[in-house]
């Protein structure tokens, strides 16, 4: 049933995407704030308690509803629940409008508008970026967003659903990503900033949770792109990026479409209210990168944006075909 749940969720999300200011994101934000406000006392074990509550309570709630539906109403209703959860956690439309708007601005030659849209999306100062750097940053942010909104969710959902845990994997992955991002951002808040302990716990947990999905995503990009170049770039250039998991994905993307990534920096724009961006599932700190060298490849140009779109969609099709084949084998077996 995992294949059908994922397919339905993706189709529904394409027709009617989830809005940025919906009750689900509002509830997640309120829950995350409550756990840090009541359990973040600054000690390492308090950080892990806050993280465990913030992540595992929603995960167990999703699992409990799944099994309640299985035992009372039957599997079809449990599948509908999985579709609903995937609709809230999975999807391109949660970030793709930013990519599309910037790409259209570049196609029309309106670089000031493209810089403004990039600055608004990532909360960074992009006023001095040349055209190639705008494209590079858009590629990097979009690929990471595609991983966190689509491929990472698919990986955790598919694995845990296969052992009878329903949509728990999708909730676990997205909550792990959200609390790490939100608490890192809240560190700069004027009122009740997050402690180092809770940030460290969330960051460590997120690195472990995303370790395997990041490599699955990179492998998918290599298979549907230029395989040898992607693997070579993965092996030799992933360390150029400060985040290990993101570096693996970006290096594989660089090799798969032959584009130079990394090696730049963006200055963050002070943000007084993180609520809109946090609710929209975007990263207020995603643009903060130290200059660490770039990967080999061609200078980024607008044509690479279309190549990246094709790379991502081919990877989605590949994993969906694989899931369909596994589902068919299980049904026939």
TrEMBL record:
Superkingdom, natural source: Bacteria
Topology relative to the membrane: Multi-pass membrane protein
KW Cell membrane (keyword) present: yes
Cellular component, GO, one term: plasma membrane
Region (Disordered): 268-302
Keyword hit for Cell membrane: yes
Pathway(s) served: Cofactor biosynthesis; adenosylcobalamin biosynthesis
Cellular compartments annotated: Cell membrane
Family annotation (InterPro entries): Cobalamin_biosynth_CobD/CbiB
GO molecular function: ABC-type vitamin B12 transporter activity; threonine-phosphate decarboxylase activity
Regions crossing the membrane: 48-70, 77-95, 153-173, 311-332
Entry keywords, A to Z: Cell membrane, Cobalamin biosynthesis, Membrane, Transmembrane, Transmembrane helix
NCBIfam families per record: PRK07630.1 (NF005792)
Similarity annotation: Belongs to the CobD/CbiB family.
Function text: Converts cobyric acid to cobinamide by the addition of aminopropanol on the F carboxylic group.
Name of the protein this chain belongs to: Cobalamin biosynthesis protein CobD
Species annotation: Acidovorax cavernicola
UniProt lineage: Bacteria, Pseudomonadati, Pseudomonadota, Betaproteobacteria, Burkholderiales
């Amino acid at each position: 049933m995992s294949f059908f749940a994922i397919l339905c969720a993706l189709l529904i999300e394409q027709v009617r995407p989830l809005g940025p200011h919906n009750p689900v994101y509002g509830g997640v934000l309120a829950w995350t704030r409550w756990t840090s406000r009541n359990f973040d006392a600054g000690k390492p074990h308090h950080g892990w308690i806050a993280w465990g509550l913030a992540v595992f309570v929603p995960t167990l709630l999703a699992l409990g509803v799944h099994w309640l539906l299985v035992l009372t109403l039957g599997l079809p209703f449990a599948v509908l629940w999985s579709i609903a959860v995937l609709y809230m956690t999975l999807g391109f439309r949660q970030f793709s409008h930013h990519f599309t708007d910037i790409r259209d601005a570049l196609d029309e030659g309106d670089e000031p508008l493209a810089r403004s849209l990039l600055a608004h999306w990532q909360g960074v100062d992009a006023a001095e970026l040349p055209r190639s750097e705008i494209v590079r940053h858009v590629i990097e942010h979009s690929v990471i967003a595609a991983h966190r909104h689509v491929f990472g969710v698919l990986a955790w959902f598919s694995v845990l659903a296969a052992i009878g845990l329903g949509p728990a994997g999708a909730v676990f992955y997205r909550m792990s990503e959200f609390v790490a991002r939100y608490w890192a951002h809240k560190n700069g808040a004027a009122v009740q900033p997050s402690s180092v302990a809770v940030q460290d716990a969330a960051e460590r947990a997120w690195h472990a949770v995303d370790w395997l999905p990041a490599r699955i995503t990179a492998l998918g990009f290599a298979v549907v792109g230029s395989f040898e170049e992607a693997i070579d770039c993965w092996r030799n250039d992933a360390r150029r990026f400060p985040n290990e998991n993101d570096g693996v994905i970006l290096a594989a993307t660089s090799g798969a479409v032959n584009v130079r990534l990394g090696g730049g920096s963006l200055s963050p724009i002070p943000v007084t209210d993180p609520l809109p961006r946090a609710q929209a599932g975007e990263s207020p700190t995603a643009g903060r990168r130290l200059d660490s060298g770039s990967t080999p490849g061609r200078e980024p140009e607008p044509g690479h944006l279309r190549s990246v779109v094709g790379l991502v969609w081919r990877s989605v099709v590949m994993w969906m075909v694989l899931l369909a084949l596994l589902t068919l084998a299980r049904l026939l077996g």
